[in-house]
Amino acid sequence: MKLKCEVQVSNxxxxxxxxxxxxxxxxxxxxxxxxxxxxxxxxxxxLCTAQNRNGTHYLLTNNVEQIFSKFICEGKATIxxxxxxxxxxxxxxxxxxxxxxxxxxxxxxxGKPFPENVLSSLTPASAKQIEKPSxxxxxxxxxxxxxxxxxxxLELTVNxxxxxRVSPMITxxxxxxxxxLSTNMLPHLPESFSQLVVLHTLNLSHNKLxxxxxxxxxxxxxxxxxxxxxxxxxxxxxxxxxTQFLKLHTLNLxxxxxxxxxxxxxxxxxxxxxxxxxxxxxxxPATLLSKFFDTMDFSNxxxxxxxxxxxxxxxxxxxxxVELAARTIISHSVSYTSEDLDVHSVSYLNxxxxxxxxxxxxxxxxxxxIQGKLQCRTNYGNDYxxxxxxxxxxxxxxxxxxx
Length: 403
Known about the structure:
single chain; alpha/beta; PH-domain like; Leucine-rich repeat, LRR (right-handed beta-alpha superhelix); 9-stranded parallel beta sheet; 7-stranded antiparallel beta sheet
């Protein structure tokens, strides 16, 4: 049984001797087996590091006080030995391999028999075995593109490689937290992109995207993604479902072809930095007026103050049963597909607007068009920008008139 991970060994008696010595975790080659020549002897754990390639042997047979494995699914566990009084803590390990090791340690500590084929020879580690795996890789030309990628990668940059699709080798790197695929020719993202469930920073700028890739807000990536850069693409519209992002903090959509911003944009609770310079925006949704941002940039857009879009009527048509049902579906985020509803119903739901109160509305609404000022610490756009508001009730109309 062999395992590569970070290991920290700490002695429990040192604090009682008024000695404060906290060892740092070190990349370690871990082996489980018997000493050479002892075919039926006791089971030992061998820890080899770059500083000590011969390694340190720890007796396991009848020598384990306790095993802490609550966070084994995160690649973490601790073995508490009786003698010496050491705690051996494992981290950044493969959860499956660590789980097997812990099971074997438990059997060895209880003196129970287990398959001999899981035991390894306790010999000094080679230089290659204790070499720490790569955590980042930067590729800036097609000639540097590898035949395969290290599974240990946490950060990957692939620029200027003329990529027209994302390779399955990249989407198989499930530990990636930072991915930069900028300056390529990507028209879309594959469904396999949903495997990158711990991704928090994604750069797709300078590509050929025409829409915000659905896999980003319809898969589990939406739970981890914090920084998304989509500038210099060919995106023309944005989906209402962007509210599915749970941690998105920064969104850059500069230098695209976006004409309208969905009212639901302001309902992304975590969003603090929004950049849409050099687009085709004529106005902004009034829902943005009720949210405070850290930084916003709407410079170099085609804002116009058109009274034609303003409905000065304060008469609210009574909502039909169809509209009430549609409001309920959207308000409660009820998922639906073309298999659940007919084409006309799906089309009707896709035409929803959002009031400044956050509620969806359809025919039963009034429209207001005003100039307003965004609330943010740093604003790189105009001081006053045209806003278009859809209001679902007289109460919201009165509230809007006070803004």
